[in-house]
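hi got a favour to ask and not much time before my train. below you get a single protein, a line of residues and a line of whole numbers that encode the local backbone shape. could you go over both lines and see whether the tokens make sense for that sequence. a few lines back from you is plenty, here it is:
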Amino acid sequence: MNNKQAIAKGLLDIGAVFLRPDEPFTWASGIKSPIYCDNRLILTAPAVRALVEQSLAETIRAKYPEAQVLMGTATAGIAHAAIAAHLLGLPMGYVRSGAKDHGRQNQIEGRLEAGQKVVVIEDLISTGGSVLEVVEVLRNAGAQVLGIVSLFTYGMQKGLDRLAAAQVENTSLTDFDTIIEVALQEGKIAPADKERLLKFRANPADESWI
């Protein structure tokens, strides 16, 4: 089992990622989904947390050895950015979803100097909208965004297209396809579910997979 599969297994075991194709969840948008994700549960599962944070640090060290600062996305990316930064001995901060309406009215929390090389830490990427807002805020502040390292990505085409258009690279510790394969091996889904799940990923708005 490779690292991507080990993380997928960990997320499935603690229920951070839960597959239920026969009883779909409903997103806030109204879309029916066979998958539920709550990566915050990683923080309360020490063994999985250790694997995830060490993998984040190793990924950053390998892909972005020149990184000077880690910036987490609010709120789910903050803790992961803090732990990975601690392991790497790097400064960290985070980007709010909007500027504060009081005090210094910061949107970026933590010290960031123009020209610094930043890696963004995100917990989950679907269509890519929220993480790309963070990238834009950092770029507008003069940071050089080297890339994004995320815990999990769906691999949806809309998200891939948005990242490409913004010219920013994302590296995920695990992904939807790996989750499906591990869930199949673990007997958490039936073999016939694989095609249905991939059809959902291809176009979440098309509910014919149900």
User: Anything to note?
Assistant: Helices lie at 3-13, 46-63, 76-88, 129-140, 157-165, 176-185, 193-202. DSSP finds seven helices and ten strands in the chain.
